[in-house]
Amino acid sequence: MTDVIHELDTRRLLCPMPVIKTQNKVRTLSTGDCLKVVCTDPGALNDIPAWCRINGHEVLEAAEQGNECFVVLRVGEDNGALF
């Protein structure tokens, strides 16, 4: 896979900010782009994938690494969807 992965740092932000920051970043990307969201709020492992399902984005990976977690998503066709 040769997808360009954009990265968004949402460390030290609490719910709902990781999802809001993700939504704002996705609006700037093109369909098919990949975004890795790095966060310290473990709730984001559920919140961001739920937001993706509602808005037509594909979750490629979601995991914890030490005190951080990350979600990698592929932007769907409607990248301007509202929360």
Label the overall shape.
Answer: globular
Strand content: 25-35%
What's the order of the H and E elements?
Answer: EHEHEE
Q: What is the number of E strands?
A: 4
The biggest sheet, with number of strands, parallel, antiparallel or mixed sense and barrel status, is: 4 strands, mixed
Strands in their spatial order, largest beta sheet: 1-2-4-3
Separation of the first and last Cα atoms:
29 Å
Number of helices: 2
Q: Write down the overall mean pLDDT.
A: 91
Indicate the structural class.
alpha+beta
- Poorly predicted runs of 5 or more residues: none
* Radius of gyration of CA atoms, rounded to a whole number: 11 Å
How much helical structure, as a percent, in the residues?
25-40%
What do these coordinates show?
The chain starts with a strand and ends in a 9-residue tail after the last strand. It has helices spanning 17-26, 44-55; strands spanning 5-10, 34-39, 58-65, 68-74. With 83 residues, it is of the alpha+beta class. It has 2 helices and 4 strands, in the order βαβαββ. β1, α1 (17-26) and β2 (34-39) form a beta-alpha-beta unit. The protein has a 4-stranded mixed beta sheet, with helices on one face. The protein is globular, with a radius of gyration of 11 Å. The mean pLDDT is 91.
